[in-house]
Design goal:
With about 325 residues, the protein is an alpha+beta fold. About 15% of the residues lie in helices and about 40% in strands. It folds into 2 domains: about 1-55; about 55-310, Neuraminidase (6 Propeller), CATH 2.120.10.30.
Amino acid sequence: MKRYAAFFVVLIICLSVFGCKKNDVETIDTSKKIAELRRATKKRQEKKKEKTKVGIEFIRITKTYEYDSAPAFSPDGTKIAYASYRDDVQNIWIVDSEGKEKPKRITHTATLDNRPTWSADGNTIIFSSAKLNDNAEPKLRIINSNGTNLRQLGKGVQGYNPSCSPINEQLVFVSKNNLWIMKTLNDKPEYITTKGYHDYPCWMDNAKKVLFFSDNDLHLIGIDKKESTCLTKDAWNSFPSISLKTNKIAFISNRSGNYDLWIMNSDCTNPVQITDDKYNELYPCFSSDGSRIAFQSDKSGNFDIWVAKLPENI
């Protein structure tokens, strides 16, 4: 009996050892397969990124080593208005859209001027203006695009992040975290949202709807129905801009791990990453023909205005 018992003990030990070795082999093989799949997936993703970036040309527009931000294309696409922080004030400047000419300063106030937007005819620029060291909400001001006739918008309308309609006189802006519109620049503002935090509005669908940022995503609201719809539901998406000609949306998203510039169709399909680096992009603005995007980036070591020229296949 002792001999049989010893035999069975040895047999069990041998089976256990060989069984473990087999499992180990299977585990190693599975790990190798997973690693190979990951490498193949990464390779496909890299090829896809390279393919989408073919033909995109980046041009640095401002090179003064100041803090330049919030670019806005003129309706004809020949100029870019932007805000530049210098000597403890921030004023509105204009530069040609190729960056070949010297920028021109059009406001000369001891204030913080920001977020310029062009009227549909290109004759005037509306922007927000805040007093230094003042916690009050900024006021909206308007100036001729040649730098003359600076004045308050309406009867001292307060707000920020204005956006002029590209087809009529309508204006949408933010005040007290909600969206307001003026159907003409002489009308009294009317609110279209009442609760929550809403920001960075722009016009969509022939100025019948407004695209904006809220709760880390892009939302759409009709100016008459006053019902909003969430368009994006992944990562953080903000700073929308629309090309009415191509029906594309430019926006900033961290879905790839960094604040990069993206574009997509107006129904949120076919997202394409335009920038993919360690730097941060903000405030994109489509040109009226949809062929270029002006944006703010620190890729030069300082926040400057850049333009991305897009190929026809994007």
